Automatic annotation (TrEMBL):
Residues 1-26 are annotated as: Disordered. It comes from Leucobacter soli. This is AAA domain-containing protein. It comes from the Bacteria. CDD domains: ParAB_family. InterPro entries: AAA_dom, DNA_Partitioning_ATPase. May play a role in septum formation. Belongs to the ParA family. Residues 35-209 form the AAA domain. Transmembrane segments: none annotated.
C-alpha cells in the first residue's frame, strides 16, 4: 500500500515510471576510446537519423567528442548536418579501401565536437562489392578502429535493412539503440531485429549489447500513441529508455535547415528531450 501511495504521489513520465532527474554529466578530462553505438531499425522513418543527429549534438554540447557515421546510401545524416557528401570521399571509399585513412573522410559539422563521415548513393553498391571479401562483416570495424581513440562516442546511422551493411555496423559496435515510432505496427519487425543482434553477438561480436529502445514520434494527446508506448514498455521493460521523443514538426524543419534542433530551435521541447536522452545515456553508463 505504501508503494502505491508513493507511486501515485510521484509524477509519472510517459513510460509510466516515476520521472527521474538526470544530472548534467561531469566534463571529461580525457577523451576516448569511443564507445561505438549503432542506431538500428530495419523499418524506415522511425527516427534513426534524427536521433543520431540530435543525440550526437546533445552529447557534443556536454563536451563529448562525437563522430556520426552516415551508413545509409540515402545520405540523410550528411544532409541533416549540412556536410558535403558529393564529390568528396565517403564511407564507401573507406569500406572499399580506396581511401585508407578515415581522417581524410571525416568532416566537421557546424556543431563543435560533432564530426561526420558522410555517405551518398555510392554506398548502395557496397554490399555487392563486399560480398566476396574476406571477413566481409568486419570491414567497418576495421575502419572505425583507426579513429576510435579520438572520440568518446561513435554513432552509426544505419540504413533501413538487415543486410550486410547493418551487420557490419553491428559487428563494429559495442551497443545498439533501437528507435521505435509510437505508431501502428511499431513492434512489427523488432523481434527479427533483436534476433539479428543476437546472431551477430553469437557469431561475430560477443560483447555486443542492446543498449536500449527509444520511443520516438510520441503524441501524448492521442490514446493510440499512449497504448503503443504502454505495449512497448510491457514488452521490453527496462530496455525502454525513460526519455521519450515527442512528435514535433520542428524536427523535420531542423533537418531541412541542415541543423541539429539545439541550434535550430533551442527553446523547443525536442531540444530538451535530446539533451535529456544524452544525460540518461551517460547516467546508464551507455556513453562516457
Ligand atoms: N519526433 C519527431 N517528430 C516529428 N517528425 C519526426 C520526428 N523524428 C523524426 N521525424 C521526421 O520523420 C521522418 C523520418 O525520420 P528519420 O529520422 O529520417 O527516420 P529513419 O532514419 O529511421 O528513416 C523525417 O522526415 C524526420 O524529420
Ligand atoms: Mg535514416
Amino acid at each position: 500500500m505504501a508503494t502505491r501511495a508513493a507511486k501515485s504521489s510521484a509524477k509519472l513520465g510517459p513510460t509510466g515510471r516515476p520521472e527521474r532527474f538526470y544530472p548534467v554529466p561531469p566534463k571529461l578530462d580525457r577523451h576516448g576510446p569511443a564507445r561505438i553505438i549503432s542506431m538500428c531499425n530495419q523499418k524506415g522513418g522511425v527516427g534513426k537519423t534524427t536521433t543520431t543527429i540530435n543525440l550526437g549534438a546533445a552529447l557534443a554540447r556536454y563536451g563529448r567528442r562525437v563522430l556520426a557515421v552516415d551508413f545509409d546510401p540515402q545520405g540523410a545524416l550528411s544532409a541533416g548536418l549540412g556536410v558535403a557528401a558529393h564529390d568528396v570521399p565517403t564511407i564507401y571509399d573507406l569500406m572499399l579501401g580506396k581511401v585508407k585513412d578515415p581522417v581524410e573522410v571525416i568532416q566537421p559539422s557546424t556543431t563543435e565536437g560533432l564530426d561526420v563521415i558522410p555517405a551518398n548513393i555510392d554506398l548502395s553498391a557496397a554490399e555487392v562489392h563486399l560480398v566476396s571479401e574476406v571477413a566481409r562483416e568486419q570491414i567497418l570495424a576495421g575502419v572505425l578502429r583507426k579513429v576510435a581513440d579520438r572520440y568518446d562516442v561513435i554513432l552509426i546511422d544505419c540504413q533501413p535493412s538487415l543486410g550486410l551493411l547493418t551487420v557490419n555496423a553491428l559487428t563494429a559496435s559495442h551497443g545498439v539503440l533501437i528507435p521505435l515510432a509510437c505508431e501502428y505496427f511499431a513492434l512489427r519487425g523488432v523481434a527479427l531485429l533483436i534476433e539479428t543482434v543476437e546472431k551477430v553477438r553469437d557469431r561475430l561480436n560477443p560483447s555486443l549489447e542492446l543498449d536500449g529502445i527509444i520511443a520516438t514520434m510520441y503524441d501524448p494527446r492521442t490514446l493510440h500513441a499512449r497504448e503503443v508506448l504502454e505495449r512497448v514498455v510491457a514488452t521490453f521493460d527496462e530496455k525502454v529508455l525513460d526519455t521519450v521523443i515527442n512528435r514535433t514538426v520542428k524536427l523535420p524543419d531542423a533537418s531541412v535547415a541542415a541543423k541539429p534542433i539545439l541550434d535550430y530551435a533551442p527553446e523547443n521541447a525536442a531540444s530538451e528531450a535530446y539533451l535529456q536522452l544524452a544525460r540518461e545515456l551517460v547516467l546508464r553508463g551507455t556513453v562516457a
